Amino acid sequence: MSDVTMQNAFTIRDVVMVFKPRIAVAIMLSAIGGMAVVDGASPGLLQLGLLAIAVFLAAGSAGAFNQWVEADLDARMKRTANRPFVTGQFKAGPAWLMAIVGLLVAAVVLAGLATNWWAALYTFLGAFTYGVVYTMWLKRRSWVNIVVGGLAGSFAVLAGAAAINPSIGMEGLLLTLVLFLWTPPHFWSLAMVSSDDYARADVPMLPVVAGKQLCAWVILGHTVVLSVIALIPAWYGMGPLYLAGALIGGTLFTWTSIDLVYRPDRTRALKNFFASLLQLCLLLGGAVADRVFGAFI
User: Fold this and answer.
1) Cβ distance 52 to 28 under 8 Å?
2) How far is C-alpha 85 from the geometric centre of its chain's CA atoms?
3) Residue 81 — φ and ψ, nearest 5°?
4) If you average pLDDT over each of 38-47, 78-87, 179-188, which comes out highest?
5) For 189, left (φ over 0), alpha (ψ -120 to 50), or beta?
6) For domain 15-142+152-166, is the CATH number 1.10.357?
7) Longest dimension (CA), the chain
8) Residue 129 CA from chain centroid, whole number
9) CA of 239: how far to CAs of 72, 174, 287, in Å?
10) Cα(28)–Cα(104) distance, rounded to whole angstroms?
11) Domain assignments of the chain as residue spans, ordered by start
């Protein structure tokens, strides 16, 4: 591969990473989970697929806006010091802002045209919560930043649920609550891993302001509550595949959270972070599997 080709490949990769695709995928999966738990007449696989893409793009625009706003903050943290807006590979100027806003507008319009405007509203609110409420208003000011920021995933669930039935229903509301409760312990586990970074950057994440031990207890409390609430949709019509995913994922996340309380170090915090991801995959995967294959069980 020539040097020019390699340089172009790295540029494409860096452009993609500006939009935080891994977070966008998690947000999109939350929307798909919302589609799966709600009863109603589906607008069709094509329309639902387009909504999933719209949620992904909206989340990506919020992730890019986060990096655009936080170039100065990212420069003070080892974990983020190599991001393109920090290194100068990309200039955080008005052209990028216009592209980010344009992408969000396109995503919201796509969501509305593909399904309905309630789904479009929730798609917008998820991106707005992460990009503006969390990034601009709360992250540098209060330890509750990620608690409120957790609404980004919750709005994605509502977008998916509203695409099937705008009234949402109890199952959709319960999954929305679960995603709201899931985000803080998921992110606080990662914040414990990078607590020195956040302390140097003067970002008031919970492990910094309260200490790792108290943070571990708070993580455990959140994990237990969300794991219990995640089981309740089984009493509202969700079947055994959903219940199995919720039970296994919740048990694993609770176990690693208990371990984190006993020894709140970096290794166990990272283990808890990955356990939270596994719980989310099992929960949402169980919801989808139950919707697709539940009739055959």
Assistant:
1) yes
2) 22
3) -70, -15
4) 179-188
5) alpha
6) yes
7) 59
8) 11
9) 48, 15, 8
10) 14
11) 15-142+152-166, 168-297
The pair of structure tokens assigned to 154 is 């919750």
Q: What is the pLDDT of residue 42?
A: 80
237-292 pLDDT, tens digit per residue, is: 888 999 999 999 999 999 999 999 999 999 999 999 999 999 999 999 999 999 88
Question: What's the rounded Cα separation, in Å, for the pair 18 and 90?
Answer: 10
Could you give the angle at the alpha carbon of 23 between the alpha carbons of 28 and 268, nearest 5°?
125
CA distance linking residue 272 with residue 225, whole number of Å: 16
At residue 150's C-alpha, the angle toward residues 199 and 41, to 5°, is 160
- CA-nearest of 223, 220, 230 to 33 is 230
| Contact between residue 270 and residue 218 where contact means Cβ atoms under 8 Å apart | no
Q: What is the model's pLDDT at position 5?
A: 47
Tens of pLDDT, residue by residue over 157-169, are: 999 999 999 999 8
Rounded Cα–Cα distance for residues 185 and 215 (Å)? 9
- 3-state helix, strand, coil split of the chain in percent (to 5) is 80, 0, 20
Q: Which residues contact 173 (CB under 8 A, 6 or more apart)?
A: none
Amino acid in position 103: L
Tokens 């993580």, residue located = 219
Taking the alpha carbons of 166, 169, 173, 178 in that order, is the dihedral positive or negative?
Answer: negative
Q: SS3 string of 105-144? A: HHHHHHHHHHCCHHHHHHHHHHHHHHHHHHHHHHCCCCCC
